[in-house]
């Protein structure tokens, strides 16, 4: 079991800093993770059941933000450290709004995950993006309205990361190359709209989403992308199209059975792509995504509250 020092989080609206400048605070931080940089995979619990995965073990990670969706499966594939996390828990026990995304991404970052493949089932809002196609999106619209829960910062340390391009361009390139080598229909780019679940869209909502310029719709990708950016993890999404949502009047509205049938049809292909992309990911984390905090941290180091600094040690230890 991996255990990090956990400090009680502040409440929303708590005041840490007075109007007077505090003296410099030297905060004991967790030492930098000595394990080799790892590639993370978030998706269905079956993704880590693939050929070639060696020396794998489940690790229970306790985080300052609560418990992750499940244990992280840590192993080796093709000579690289791989960390798998079932987004909804093994057995798909968690609804989208019940997922503790902060705990998930913190847990992965604490294991020195520096690249992340998010395997996601999505609905299509465009005729040309057909069920069982694969899309590697390049843009994102967040309609969850829960952004305050999807940041590591606050509680005395302010940061504003750049998010104009929400997915790492380098990681997208790796994922596209792997997908094109294996899948019959791969689309480069598209806008993923993240909505609240757990119900699927109404027809009026689907029409509005199409008018907004969205191409895909799902319920989990926005918080993952935001938190990966703050954690300096290079993240890209492998979107598996399962349905046409409910906007197409000449097709049946989406239901769970349709989603599951098409998702299962794509699962073998998704595993092959994940296995192939691992060999394409550089061994050294040197993308712009790995340095975003250099220009994002707003609060001076001497004003960081010790408790908050401890909670964010996996991301901030290099600044100490």
Structure description:
By secondary structure, this protein is α/β, with parallel strands linked by helices. It has a single domain, classed as Rossmann fold (3-Layer(aba) Sandwich), CATH 3.40.50.1580. The chain has 7 helices and 13 strands. The strands form 2 sheets. Strands 2, 3, 5, 6, 7, 8, 9, 10, 11, 12 and 13 form an 11-stranded mixed beta sheet that branches. It is globular. The N terminus is likely disordered.
Radius of gyration: 20 Å
Helix/strand class: alpha/beta
Strand content: 15-25%
Mean pLDDT: 87
Number of helices: 7
Largest beta sheet, briefly?
Answer: 11 strands, mixed
**What general outline do the C-alpha atoms trace?**
globular
